[in-house]
Amino acid sequence: MSIQIYILSKLIEGNNYPYELKRQLSEPIPFDEYTGLTESKLYYHFDSLAKKGLIEVVEIVKEEHRPDKQVFAITEKGRKELPEKIYKLFENTTEINEMMVGLVNLKHVDRDRIVDTLEEKLQKHKEKWELIRESASQLKVDDSKQGLVDFISDYSLSKAKQTEQWLEELIERIQNHKM
After folding, report:
1. Backbone angles phi, psi at 70, to 5 degrees
2. DSSP structural state of residue 54
3. Under DSSP, is residue 126 helix (H, G, I), strand (E, B) or coil?
4. 98-103 long-range contacts, Cβ below 8 Å, gap at least 24?
5. pLDDT of 55 higher than 70
């Protein structure tokens, strides 16, 4: 879904072709390598979006000794679908790093709706970890495994606290238009 949001958000800014979007994603920081985005994956998503009627070919550029370039534009249906894809991204992700393409495209959505989604996610996270803490306190472990249990517990709780802090920070920044 993130790749499709990226494509639609770039095409809403202007017509473009797949290779150029991949080049933009790789310079100056090679985000394409970090995300594992290959040309074949990118072309697959362009094709998928075109089949759904969200984008369309508006021009074919012919160059001597080079393959033809298909230039794409976003359709009206694609303009309407972009915010819905962003909302779904926030609803379905569990980690903040999975939300990045949505965060970059907050201008296309209702920020209050995103904040509501994140607050709900934060509340569920807190409830889940409170239940885990309560359950862990009732756990009986023999002395030979106590060190391992303590390590796993400390690590997990530390990670949960960090997630909680960053969700709170993210909510605040979106509410205060710091992003």
Report:
1. -95, 120
2. S
3. helix
4. 98/2, 99/170, 100/2, 101/2, 101/5, 101/6, 101/9, 102/2, 102/5, 103/170, 103/179
5. yes
